[in-house]
Amino acid sequence: MVHKAENKMVSVIIPTFNDSSDRLSRSIFSVINQTYRKIEIFIIDDGSKLPFAGLNKTIKDKRISWLPLKKNSGVAKARNHALTKAKGKYVAFLDTGDWWEKDKLSEQLKVFASTQFKDCILTYSDAQTHFPDGSIGKMVAKNKGRLYPQALVNVPVSGSCSSALLLTEVLLGVGGFYESEDIPEDKELWVQLSKVGSFDYISNLLVHIEVHLPSSRSFSAEKKKKPYLKFIELHETELKSYRLYKKAIANYHEQIGMKYYLSGDNKQSIVNWLKRICYNPSFTSFLDLIILIWSALTKKEYRVIRSKVYKTINKIRGKKI
Exposed, middle or buried: residue 109 (CB in 10 Å: 0-12, 13-18, 19+)? Predict the structure, then answer.
């Protein structure tokens, strides 16, 4: 059934933990300044030394609820706690440091109102990534419909949580974000939601993603190994039934290899890339390894080289790889 999204409340949840006032305020004001006005905003502080970076004393907006937690419990629990307060028909999440274009919510609500999928439960958009060195990249929205079992091996939502707008009732129905173990909580959410309904997208750049500094947990290969493998272990039966287990392991090595690369450990990056090829040999995986080695030898940015190489190949082939 097509959604009549007009005049429906949207609940926006922003988790924060020991973030700077500049990063947090950038995220908050991108929500406050949305053209779609019927929103409520929950800013939940996950046990910071200075709750909300002190912004709760300076930012005044009646739509904002400041929710402090005494103890740091992780982003999944923080989001779920705020979710229990939400009254909106729709809910959106925004990670601190990320920000939205002013028409993000209004454009996504239009997708809900016009989608071809009667069981649509989530919409998202293109996203732009912003790296510490000032360079930018693009995440293109391209997956729609029923995305399980695709969600078992890939992240189907460009921009992930900061991009998604979803039905609150459905999110509550799947139990919110997974809290039981340390796994990629957003990836697990897409898996559970993809069992329930369809995803749709708008091909507009509506979301900006701040790529974290190498010192952050999300950048650390060592800290991400166990959660990533735990996710695969949790879904091992389904992955094997769909004959996707090897592909999932290959993707794991690709992700870990990239994190090693970004941290400057070219040796471990290449080792993981080789393992990726062993589990899922393909033209793309071989080419990516060559580009990675080329990048390490020339000290040029991998993603810049890769973009140029694939653009050249696409021109020659007349199609995307």
Answer: buried
Beta bridge partners of 129: 137, 209
Q: Could you give the CA distance from residue 17 to residue 13 in angstroms, rounded to a whole number?
A: 13
Angle at Cα 94 formed by Cα 92 and Cα 97, nearest 5°? 170
Tell me the pLDDT tens digit for each residue of 153-210.
Answer: 999 999 999 999 999 999 999 999 999 888 999 999 999 999 999 999 999 999 999 9
Candidates 163, 165, 158; CA nearest to 109 is 165
Q: Which amino acid is at 120?
A: C
Length of the chain: 321
Round to whole Å and give the CA distance between 63 and 85: 13
| Cβ count near 300 (within 10 Å) | 12
* Pairing state between β 10-16 and 90-93: parallel
Contacts of 174 (CB under 8 A, 6+ apart): 189, 192, 193, 195, 196
Residue with tokens 């166990």, as numbered in its chain: 226
